[in-house]
Each structure stands twice: as C-alpha cells, then as structure tokens.
C-alpha cells in the first residue's frame, strides 16, 4: 500500500520537473531509505535485545554447567548436558507427547478452521454472530481457558455429569486429566477449541481474496459445490494454507501453558512437553545450562521440520 | 511546493524517530543508574528492607508489621526497617531472580529446608552477632536453619504433620487410638485403613493431600513416611548421592505402600484442595495433614472435641514427623549487617514469637513463648504437636541439593501413585538427583 502511493507520487513529481528529475529522485530515494532504516531500528533493537542475544546466549550456555544461582564460576562441560538429556526417558516422553500433539492438532485444527471459515463465508446476517462466537475463545487468555477446562474435566465436573445424564447414569466418571490414558486427549480437545477461531479467521481472509468471477465461471460450467471447493477454493488458498501449516506446527510444538496450568507434565509424564521440561529445569530446578541444551535441541527440531514443510510446499 | 514539504516532514520524522530512540535508550540507562544510586543512598541512610512471604496471610503479615513498628519506634534501633511482602507461591522465585540481578534486600524470609541452598549460593550470610546467637540458643532445634555448622536463619514457629481422626469412628470400627508414646505399627495402620474402607462410609476414607503437588508438601509429609520405612531422600553421610537410599529395598517398599493406597482405593491420587475442610465435612475418615488443619477444625468443626491427633504410624524405623518452617535470615549483600542482626534479635522476643506462631497456629519456638499461647501451654489442646515434634522430628536433608531433590521426589511419588513402575521410576529419580549433584560439583564451593 505505502509503496504503491510512494511510487505514484514519485512519477507525477518526475513528470512535472523533468530536468532536475534524476537528481531529486536519487536524493529522495536516499531519504526514503533513511526513513526505512529508522523505522526498522526500534523493532530491530528490540528483536536483538530480547530474541537475538538470548538465543545466542542459550546456545552458548548449553555447553556449560551454568546455574541461576551458584557460588562457583560457570564451566565449559562440552556435550555432557546433551548426553544426559538423551539418556533421560522423560525427554523422550516429552518428544513423543509433542509429536502426538502436533500430528493430531495440526490437521484437525486446520481442517476445522477451514470448515468453519467456509461455513461463515456466506454473506448471511448471522455470520457476524458466529464469527464472534468462534473467535471468543481466542481472545480469552490460555491460562483462563485452562483453568475453566480443569473444572470441566474434574471427576465431578461438567463433562462427566453431562455424559452421566446422557447415558442415564451408566457412566463411570473418568478423572480426565489425572489418567495417563486420557490426559493428552483432554488437552488436545481443549487446545483445538481454544485456537480454532484464530485459524478460522486466517482462512477467512484467504477465502475473501478469491475473486467471485472464478466461482461464477465454475457455476456456468455446471460445477457442484464440492467441485467448486476442490477446483477453485483449494488451489487459491495455497499461500494461506502454507502459512497456517507452519504457524500451527510451531505453535503445537511449543505446547506449554496448558501443561503448566493443568497437569504439570503428569500423570506419569503423559503430558510433559519439551518446552515444559526446559522451563522446569531452568526455573524450578535452576539448571540453566541443561535447560539451554533442551532449547537448543528443540530449536534444531523445529528448524528441520519447518525446512521439510517449506520443501514440500515450495513453488513447483 | 508539496514535495519540499514532504521532504521536510520526512527529515523531521527521521530526526524525531532517532531522537525518540535515543531518548528511550538514555532513559533506560539513566533509569538504571538512578535505581542503583537510590538503593545505595537508602543503604547509607540506615534504612534496611525485609522481604517476607506473608502477603495473603493477614495474621502473619500483621505480626511482622507490629514487630517492625515497635522496632522502628524503639530508641535503640540501629536502622529503620521497611517491609515488602510477597505472596508465598512466588516468593522463592522472586528471591532467586533478585539474587541473580544483585537486587536483594537486607533481610529475607527463608523456608527452612532452603537454607543450605541459599547459603551455598551466596544469598545468605551466617549470623554472628553475639547477643543474637545467645538468644538463638533458646530456640528449639527445628526452628533454626543451619549449614556446615553455621547458623543462617531463625524461626518464630515450627510446623509439623499428624494423623487426624474422630474418636467415635475409631471406637465404632474397633481401632486403637494411637498415642505419642505408642503410634500405630504398620500392621495397625493397614488394618485401620482396611476397616475404614470396609465400613463403606467414604469413597476414599484416607486423605493425605495428594492434590498439593506444586509445593513442598510431598517432601515434607511423605518424606517422613519414607524415613520411617528406613529409606531417605539422599544419603546423609556425604550428601553426594541418593543411590541405595531412595531406590533401595526400603525405598521401594515405601513406594509400593504409597501406590497401594491408591490401588486399594484408600486415597484418591488427586484429593481435595482443602483437606482439613473435607475432613470437617466427613469426606474422609482419616486425615494426614499439617498442624495448620487445626485452625480449620477450631473454626468449622462442630464435633471438635471428637477429633483426635495422633502421630504418623511407625513403619519399622520409628515414627517420623516433618519439621522446619519459615525462618528469617540475613543476606550477604546487606550493607548494614549489625542493624539487620539487631532487628532479628529484637524480633525474637517471646511476645513476638507468640504472636507469629499464633497467627498460623504453629508451635512457638521457645518454651517462654509457648506459655504465652494458651493452646500450646500446659493442658492446651495443641500441646500434643509440640510433643510429636520433639519426639519424632527429622529435618529434611540439610544440603543445597534439597531444592532439586524435593521437586524430583514430588514428581516421582506422584507418578508412582498414578501407577508408574516403582523400580524404573525410583531409579530415574536417583539418576536425576545424582546428575544434578554432579552438575553442581557436589555442591562444594570451589
């Protein structure tokens, strides 16, 4: 938008003063560059301060025995943190849990979001209402949502009560969050419920960029609704799809808040995650070096997965 | 004309943006310096600050405020004391981060088992003032935080744990009322649980506070059971390893017993959040809880006289009970150590100890103060806790590794009660604990 305006102003200006045009243009370009850099500056400084430097520090700390508080100087210990990490069953549980979470959440949440988006993309009066309703959990803080769902999942909570009513009392109450078999499932359902609205909104914005003529043409060709979706909607959503895929994957991999509030990684490591383990070792147990090693490994995993996704969804 | 205007605006914008950035940056630095300068000025002005964990516990907060008010009003004061209180749940984290930011106050509250860790990490300074040490000699042992032979912290009160039951219920089911001198044996304990369960009056007849899995409770309350079985959290000979004590034969026996509590339906692996209130409402028949449960009973139990306090059962190596509560210590960075210790000495008067202990219905740490609280003086109904504590207390391991051991123990026992395999899980915990101790060079000072 801004670029377009700038260019058009420049052309008019060049036309009106043709003899000094070239000189002014370079001078102006320089100024525009300066403005660009100046605008970039605050964000870059903040990014460097709060993302760049900490990331580099973490990479360095991963090879030391750094602790949050210690009277002894920090010492370089090579790959000791990593050997300890890879020999720890909890880490492998965490990795497995995150993988399960991502494998289920990514397609289900993306799919459900698309379904909702298609449903409310129709220009009917109630669509604004539904849009608001679906989006409501997104604006609610994850901590609040987690606390609410803890009550829902309780032994005598709403979920068990409702199922008991529906089955006329034949239901044996399940302690959803405290049973290794159900805990992860319970968290997955809640997480999808909370975040699906956001992805619905992104899908929706994608849907609205598809020109109406394409649908008209498809209709003239006698395409059914499904054929329209398959041949018009789906291909046109390519870039939206890629973006959603990558953002959901990263968000799913860094699962933390729900775990911290609801289960603390339990029962029996059934819901622990890589980020939760990193926070636990770093802050509860003050082993900064070890926690940094976890985050470094996690960083590499995300890099690889994102790389694979980029490769698979590249422009052919 | 328009374009020159635009030019000027852009230039002005650039200048403004730069100026703003500079201004923010300089503000930040100046702000930082200002903070430090102000802190230094404060120290010079003979003003010392105390951090407490008492925000949210009104009575204790009022107690501290009273002590500070009296001290500041006394003619012999060596400095003016200021109070800053934190909620208990975030207190330890605040200290750790303040320590790494070099921002600690002069005096801090310390949960007694944390004393060695904070002493090792250079947060705490040993207490050396003669008058203070003399007074500290009057305190009961579990009211002090020591490490490597130095006294670091002193407490106004101590807490402990006990079994609570109703006399009428025990009588009806034919269960003996345990006494301080003769606690239940392991067989009696198991027998009592079986009888309570068989009565069918409660879904889970026994409540041990399993829901409290984010605090010290697991190590504080279940550690003593482990010790009574003959195991321990760490080998106390040199505090270098947990191997053989946590995952030894006795440790495994303990873990199996804990797991059976859930498996046999005696306890819920995720019990109520207010166990004392649940007991009052007869949601459980037997409660293993803290001394503080008594204040709930006194407030809400209509059958208060029916409730009986008993020590935890003897599982083979004598009954064991937990000890060590919140204490006060002085930081290494305190610029006015004489004043800090003078304040601590002042605060250890019997009348203040009595106020502080009474606030949470805990055991006052001096016999003098115990006389001032009717519940703890001769014939008082809380006196039994003093006896239990005196006879059976075993302090949590006095090692800087304790903080880590506690979090690991909590998680492991929680998982085991949820059905995890005892052998692998205990071995895993030992592996983690030993790894932590080695990673910190054995918690020695290099």
UniProtKB/TrEMBL annotation, chain A:
It is a multi-pass membrane protein. This is ABC transporter permease. Residues 95-309 form the ABC transmembrane type-1 domain. Pfam families: BPD_transp_1. The keyword Transport applies. It comes from the Bacteria. Residues 1-26 are annotated as: Disordered. One of its GO terms (cellular component) is plasma membrane. The lineage of its organism: Bacteria, Bacillati, Actinomycetota, Actinomycetes, Bifidobacteriales. Residues 1-20 have a biased composition (Low complexity). GO terms for biological process: transmembrane transport. PANTHER family: ABC TRANSPORTER PERMEASE PROTEIN, INNER MEMBRANE ABC TRANSPORTER PERMEASE PROTEIN YCJO. It is found in: Cell membrane. Keywords: Cell membrane, Membrane, Transmembrane, Transmembrane helix, Transport. It comes from Bifidobacterium moraviense. The keyword Cell membrane applies. Belongs to the binding-protein-dependent transport system permease family. The chain crosses the membrane at residues 35-63, 98-120, 132-152, 183-204, 243-261, 290-312.
TrEMBL record, chain B:
Pfam families: SBP_bac_8. It comes from the Bacteria. Residues 1-28 form the signal peptide. GO terms for cellular component: ATP-binding cassette (ABC) transporter complex, substrate-binding subunit-containing. InterPro entries: SBP, TAT_signal. One of its GO terms (biological process) is maltodextrin transmembrane transport. GO terms for molecular function: maltose binding. Gene3D superfamilies: Periplasmic binding protein-like II. Keywords: Signal, Transport. The keyword Transport applies. Belongs to the bacterial solute-binding protein 1 family. This is Sugar-binding protein. It comes from Bifidobacterium moraviense.
